[in-house]
Every structure is written in structure tokens, then in C-alpha cells.
Amino acid sequence: MTRQPSKQRKNARRAPLHEKQKQVRATLADDLREEYDQRSVRVNAGDTVEVLRGDYADEEGEVVEVDLDDAAIYVEDVTVAAADGEDVPRPLDASNVRVTELDLDDDRREARLESEEDSA
Which of 47, 55, 80, 96 has a CA-to-CA distance to 111 between 20 and 30 Å? Predict the structure, then answer.
């Protein structure tokens, strides 16, 4: 692994999809951390998150979209005004949010969270 920042940024940008999944992980709230014995989880659309950094700190909302190409997540009510005056969703880095409620509609995700061998 290189120590040069430009090469690290390039490698993160050009990473394959299975590695991009790791770039959209966020920490869990304390109660979820105790329940699932995991520190972080991949953010999915439908999860409820709390923004920890930036202009929208302490805002809480549901994740509308997860963009793996840009490793960004979009939260409802976290918008910025475009040049034409329209509100567009503001991309957030997953490291700047905390998951407060999980969307467990996916049975495989629920099983993965509850299994002890996958806990990180």
C-alpha cells in the first residue's frame, strides 16, 4: 500500500464495487452497537441516520439513496440550493453520519447482523 495521498485517492476512486461497499460504512448508535455487537454497518437506503458533521449536524433523517460510484449517501431534508433555486440533495460521506435505526426488510441483512462470526 502506498503512502502517497494522490495514489490513495486514485485507488479509492477506481476501486471495484465490492470494495466501494466498504467505503459507505457508518458507526452504529450505542443501543444498536450493544444489540448487534458491531461497531459499524453498511448504510442502506431506508436506514435512519444522524448527521454528525458539517452544516447539517444533529439533523436526523432517512437515507434516500446510496451512491457507490461516489461513495456518498443522500439523506432526506439535507439539501442545498442549486443555481436555479431548486433544492437538490447534498451528498454526505458515510463517515460523517451515525446509524440510529436499521431497515431490516432484507432477511439476509438481518441474518448477517445477528450472526456472531460476521461481527466486526
Answer: 96
